[in-house]
């Protein structure tokens, strides 16, 4: 069970199957560091690990425990790229910056796999590819355009016909699909805990149960007051994503936290196992209100989708995922679903993550829009580059001002309305 979480989000497969972890004790009293990182998810921990590898004195402050946020709860898919296709990225950010962003995001699963290998992180990681199946001719055309655009950036994706998708996924509901060989999947909590262990072993100091409550600049230092102490650091990295609180206004108003949920079966019996994702690819359905699914290392089937702010409706959406699974994969028969959990994804107005500076010496990276497992790892490395002296203009992602979303207080009704509209458009195929 996830500690200090509402029951409908707490029964996590990942906490049930997590490796034992060392105690990350709270910070009591004052300390100093070159860099202080707030938030111990993949973004903060990747930053910490890369800084520690360069011998830079680094402290990580985590309000709960490493992996408590989305990093320890997600669907485990290391997906390459951003939400937008390459042409849209280069049109918006320019050829040069666009190409750098595509390299960073496209290479993010490789970076994570490299960290896993170098630090021997046991997290059931397989780089078997990412399937994006299509429901209709329209979504197939979108996938063809995606493959053609990535090809111009030297990345070879493979279009799949109806029969191949049916064989690779184990359902006949799709008309075709796209295989991206860069994609990988893993046990996200064990990956996050592995990053924490590696960062600590390399020299970073990680404090659990330590919320950063205020941030003040004094001389060339930032002073962070925490629940039971304080940290003085030259640079501060805010890696709090959907869990962003009032620490550094207006950061919390730049993201909309939206619940995302998962359900998982018991390990599938041998006679079913080879008929569902036998190659252990992960898949995300191309509809607007997306479902995504994979198998874990023990042969369980997991599927995820959008939740709701209300617990009763969230439980219904989890039930909906079980129903969809049995419909798409009738071979599941009466295999029981044993786990149901969820967390928050941080949505932004433009569906892109944002790197923003808050005065001298403070940088945030938030707004991963449900796609931060690989990308957060890559952006964490980039934050480490900035904190160790790389100028902003040389980073492979633009640094933009933190712009609050207009009418942020209306976020809950707005999210509900958008989901209803997208469901309607999906069902009408428009
Ligand atoms: C159910 C679900 C499924 C998902 N599936 C996928 C997927 O398959 N693939 C994918 O790429 N992405 C997925 N995502 C999104 C992905 O998990 C996130 O984008 C990513 O984990 C963000 O990592 P992070 O380190 O930036 O933030 P988090 O992991 O959320 O970490 C932020 C941490 O900051 C801490 N914190 C906040 N405020 C403070 C403070 N003041 N002081 C100290 N600590 C603080 C929090 O306690 C938290 O631990 C999913 C998310 C969910 C919820």
TrEMBL record:
<keyword id="KW-0560">Oxidoreductase</keyword>
<dbReference type="InterPro" id="IPR036188">
    <property type="entry name" value="FAD/NAD-bd_sf"/>
</dbReference>
<dbReference type="GO" id="GO:0016491">
    <property type="term" value="F:oxidoreductase activity"/>
</dbReference>
<dbReference type="GO" id="GO:0005737">
    <property type="term" value="C:cytoplasm"/>
</dbReference>
<dbReference type="InterPro" id="IPR006076">
    <property type="entry name" value="FAD-dep_OxRdtase"/>
</dbReference>
<protein>
    <submittedName>
        <fullName>FAD-dependent oxidoreductase</fullName>
    </submittedName>
</protein>
<feature type="domain" description="FAD dependent oxidoreductase">
    <location>
        <begin position="35"/>
        <end position="386"/>
    </location>
</feature>
<dbReference type="Pfam" id="PF01266">
    <property type="entry name" value="DAO"/>
</dbReference>
